[in-house]
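Friendly challenge for the regulars: who can give me the structure tokens for this chain first? No prize, just bragging rights.
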Amino acid sequence: MPSCRKYLLYLRQEAKVIMKESLEYKVLRKIKKARGGALFFSDDFVSFGSSKAILKALQRLVEKEEIVRISRGIYCRPKISKLLNEPILPTVDDIAKAIAKRDRARILPTGAYALNAIGLSTQVPMNVVYLTNGSARKITIGKRRILFKKTAPKNLEAQGEISRLVIQALKELGQGNVTPGEKVKVVELLSKETPDRLENDIRLAPEWIRKIMRLALQKSSPE
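First reply, four minutes later:
Bragging rights claimed.
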């Protein structure tokens, strides 16, 4: 019986310690369990307290340089570069994918960003546009913006990581504006795509883009 009482007393003392933990400490403890470079949303900590209290705790952690504020309600535990000993922040694509994962939505990079992603342009767009089946929204990150544009589910059916980017990049260039050199580069890229995914995605592209994609499919097919 005495041992039982001691155990109950111990549990009560532990409970008091936990209750005394500051909200800031609880938030930081959860953040530190994640890998460097991980993104967090203020909503990730709703079980710890009110929205207002959570935002204050996050702001204090920003001031202490424990985390970095990426945008409104979005934070990061920076990964430190071993070479430069400086924080490595997530890319625009990392942020967009994290938002899509949180919202359980599908996204697809378009326009100038797709061109840059496959190496057909060295220009880094200030505004990055994604098609999505989730909510349309704008996210400001410093001087850059991520734009999510609502689209029909059929426009997000492309499966290949390479082919889906190629289709959007070629649409950005426009029919008749693809140079021979760009066509060679695109075919080379597409030949690295998984054949079954490439076959699936060909049917989703305009006919003039299909012709280019078929060249890649022929190249990747065994003779």
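The beta strands are 39-41, 68-71, 74-76, 79-80, 87-88, 107-109, 127-132, 137-141, 144-150. The chain has a mean pLDDT of 87. Your move, everyone else.
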